[in-house]
Amino acid sequence: MKENIGIMSRIMSLAFALLLVVGTSSIIAQTIPADEEGAVARLDGSPRHGEWVAYDAGDGDMVRAWVTYPERSGPAPVVVVIHEIYGLTDWIRGVADQLSRDGFIAVAPDLLDGHGPNGGGSDSMDRQEVVATIRTLDRTDVNRRLKAAAEFGTGLPSATDRVGVVGYCWGGSSSFLFAVDDAGLDAAVVYYGSSPEMGFESISAPVLGLYGGNDERVNSTINRAEVAMSRMNKTFTPNIFESAGHGFLRNQTGQDGANMRATKEAWPLTIDFFRRHLES
Question: Does domain 36-278 sit in CATH 3.40.50.1820?
Answer without folding.
Answer: yes
